[in-house]
Amino acid sequence: MMHGMFRGNGGCGYVKKPDFMMNIGPSGEVFDPKAKLPIKTTLKVKVYMGRGWDSGFHRTCFNTWSSPNFYTRVGITGVRADKLMKKTKKEDNTWEPFWDEEFEFQLTVPELALLRVEVHDYNMPEKDDFSGQTCLPVAELRLGIRSVPLYDRKGERIVSVTLLMRFQFV
């Protein structure tokens, strides 16, 4: 999540707090992330498909006798009211999964929200295998269809591995 927080400023290691966190109200009140806040916006995220996965992922990371069964977890991290995680259906035995699923997230403090995206390989009955991730500041999202790169657990980009996604605010 820290990689995502600093992704908006080029990774320089400093993120300025939003103005509403720095200001004191007329009655001396300060921002309370636990307070009941009104919904400011709704983010629609559509996960279309994965590209380049047959060459980007090391085949030794997955089952050697079958292709992976990928699914994607998409969620918001931020103030308590905004936290939510959803997931796509799993795509069986394919290196180029096609989900075409849309998720909606109602956001009360989009300035502090991060969009988390994780890809896993479904692995019954064992624990699912982690495949890749990315974390993006919601305030920095560009509207429209985007090719989103994936990163490993250390935050290093997995070459040629992307998700095709659409971002829309309503």
UniProtKB/TrEMBL annotation:
Keywords for the protein's UniProt record, in alphabetical order: Cell membrane, Hydrolase, Lipid degradation, Lipid metabolism, Membrane, Transducer
Statement: the UniProt record of this protein carries the keyword NAD: no
Keyword Cell membrane among record annotations: yes
GO biological process: lipid catabolic process; response to stress; signal transduction
Gene Ontology molecular function: phosphatidylinositol-4,5-bisphosphate phospholipase C activity
CDD domains: C2_PLC_like
Protein name stated in the entry: phosphoinositide phospholipase C
Lineage: Eukaryota, Viridiplantae, Streptophyta, Embryophyta, Tracheophyta
